[in-house]
Amino acid sequence: MPVTKAPIQALPGLYPELLPMVLYATIAVALIGLLMAAARWLGARSTNRNKELPYESGVIPTGDARLAYPVPFYLIAIFFIVFDVEAAFVFTWAVAWDLLGLPGLLHITFFIVVLLLGLVWLWIKGGLDWGPSRQARDSRAGERGLG
Across-strand partners of 14? Predict the structure, then answer.
């Protein structure tokens, strides 16, 4: 009868499969800390006005780099995320609809109704009016003597 050895346990209470990950993470954090400390210790400490300017491929920058994006840009991004996540959930439900049965149907219906109510609320609040509003157009026309 062959003698079998018990597996060597790397760390008590920890799975041996996690040892390489823990070791890798420790080495990575230590290396990053060492490199940051070396850069701070060895780096130049002098600064002047020209060093503080942004580099624009040899062209002296003019104006302000901070351009305000209009609110509709952010609304489009948020709508995309909301409806993209909704589509992912609905498609996932559609793949397994026969396994989920009536409880799954009720859950996905509740999910869609909540999102639909959010869309209606957004519509009522004017979040979908991305162009100039009628009131703003009328007031500008009145200022110009066109209304």
Answer: 11
